[in-house]
Amino acid sequence: MKEMIRLSSIKKNYGDVKIIKDLNFTVYEGEFLTMLGPSGCGKTTTLRMIAGFEEPTSGEIMLNEKPVSNLPPYKRKINTVFQNYALFPHLTVAQNVGFGLKMAGVPKVKRGPQVEKMLKLVQLEGYGNRKLDQLSGGQKQRIAIARALINHPQVLLLDEPLSALDLKLRKQMQLELKRLQRKLGITFVYVTHDQEEALMMSDRIAVMNKGHLEQIADPRTLYEQPKTCFVANFIGESNIFYGKVSEITKTDTKVTIENGYLTLQSDKPVFEKQIVNIVIRPEKVKFSTTEVPGFHIPATVAEHYYAGNVNKSVLRLPNGMALKMTSAGDQKLPEIGKSGFVYWELADAILIKTTSDDVFKAVDNPDFSMVNQMGGD
Amino acid sequence: MEKSIDSENVPITKTKSHYFSKTLIKWGQILPISIWMLLLVVIPLMYVLIMSFMSRDFYGGIVYKFTLSNFAQVFAGQNLKIYAQSIGIGAVSTVVCLLIAYPFAMFIAQKGPVAKTILMALVVVPSVSNSLVRLFSWITLLRKTGVVNTTLEHLGIIHHPLSMVYNTGGIVLGMVYLLLMFMIIPIFNSLDRIDHNLIEAAEDLGATKWQILKEIVIPLSKPGIFAGCIMVFIPSLGYFFVSDVMGGGTSTMMGNLIENQFQTSRNWPLGSAISVMLIVLTLVLLVLFQRRGGDMADLGGR
């Protein structure tokens, strides 16, 4: 695949504050890449550096294998869709869409048909003469996209473009954006803090946290093989255990956790006394009132929440930890207070090798301790 | 049960006294300003309006008899010349103010929040001292024997003193000096309100600095420009003392004409009629401003 954008060793400081710490990744031609992370993780700053509104403190941004870090925005074949649309309030729809052409010196007669073509692309044909205050939020968003596309950019940058829309419209626009991207084959770099949006739309997701890249991969890999506890916790729901490898035998590996131990498949590349995190997704957790063969931990049913298509349950382990479990919505649930056993396929347990600055304990995570509290005694 | 009896009785008295105290506070808040406005704005304006339709005897005494002749005199030949002159000086002053204020307001609008507050305060600060005193200090500087001329002559740069005041240019200087702030404030407000994202969006779409100014910044600051022009042009027609001090009585402006009717000519009805015309002109400009989508708050300052 052809390389479109490459960030190498990008650093960005505002005074003494390090916003971006050594960022490296590549965006390929025609790809839908999403930068995902909590607010303040540096994703918007990164996007603004690609657009040319900010200069990196150090490092180089390559567009089509040519350095562009010091070029102003208008000298890059990149256009941006802004978070709050940033449409020109004193201009009509057509004047907004045709702005890029006008700046490039395209005469008025030639602009008209191109503007109409763009409006057709975003399904707003015939809206050219309208004023902006006659448009809904979703329509404004489409105008912003049409305006950004009219100069045929090689890359379209989108900074949380759907965050101002209500849920239903947002879902609809997600599909529409994805369809548009496939149709045009333009590289999209998308910024969002909404993990569901990222999973649905992206070819690849770059998960960012505190100014560095946690993991870049396709959505399925991110969900099934998170490399860090941050990724496991940010994308989807997780149960994260913290423990120490205590015994490696031919058949399995035992990890001691607080007041107990977990079993891992024997092929996991760990060594004895290694500190590890083990992630198990709630939908992989199973509960049985009778003892099951193989790996299991005793547990008590603490809470049930009905969420339509799924049931969300909280199970309490002997060490006091709350374990999240989701099951199909139509499934019959064990009574609250009932004792039994939790178990899962050993293959479903995800091993995360812990480094000193990425140790995950339940107390680190407010969500998690909240579940603990919800469990009650 | 006890609780419900309580809650039935207490709130009624509470609501009543609450209502009275609320009404009292409301009247207490608006009464002083109402009396003030009535005594100092409404009554004098009504008096001027009525006066403009009254007749006058030979010695300048007012005869309470309805007539339209004052308004006919308003448009008499020699007066039209004065209006043209006033409007000319007003227009030049407005344009000069705009040319100075716009770049300056843009300069302030690009500063950080602290610098903005300080600079805007500095714009307003001179207005706390008396404007006549400030005009006379210009005279001290610029008259033939003033500081500037003497210095230049001593330095041998000029041999004859320059006439910088006591002429039309002096009037324009005075007007611009006193009214500049009323141009800066609304323009700054409208520039400050422009969303920075719009500038970035224009830049992103290939606009150069000049194109951003022409296509985005100036069109979006039009309400401020228009408000500033009104705020400068209208007072410039009425500031008779500027022409008195800086013009040395060489040219008569609308304000001087009105002043003369009340003082020298003792023709109060005619003075009133010209004043009414000036008020009507102001109202027309304000209506135009609002029709063009201007914000009245821009004219009142903040």
From TrEMBL, chain A:
Record domain ABC transporter: where: 5-235
GO CC annotations on file: ATP-binding cassette (ABC) transporter complex
Gene3D superfamilies: 2.40.50.100, P-loop containing nucleotide triphosphate hydrolases
Primary enzyme class: translocase
Function: Part of the ABC transporter complex PotABCD involved in spermidine/putrescine import. Responsible for energy coupling to the transport system.
Homology family: Belongs to the ABC transporter superfamily. Spermidine/putrescine importer (TC 3.A.1.11.1) family.
Protein name per its UniProtKB record: Spermidine/putrescine import ATP-binding protein PotA
Organism: Lentilactobacillus farraginis DSM 18382 = JCM 14108
Gene: potA
From TrEMBL, chain B:
Species this protein is from: Lentilactobacillus farraginis DSM 18382 = JCM 14108
Claim: Repressor is one of the keywords in the record: no
Membrane topology category: Multi-pass membrane protein
Annotated family: Belongs to the binding-protein-dependent transport system permease family. CysTW subfamily.
Compartments in which it is found: Cell membrane
UniProt protein name: Spermidine putrescine ABC superfamily ATP binding cassette transporter, membrane protein
Source organism, top-level taxon: Bacteria
Keywords: Cell membrane, Membrane, Transmembrane, Transmembrane helix, Transport
A GO biological process held by the record: transmembrane transport
Ranges of residues in domain ABC transmembrane type-1: 83-289
Membrane-spanning parts: 30-51, 58-76, 82-105, 117-139, 164-188, 224-242, 270-289
One term under GO cellular component: plasma membrane
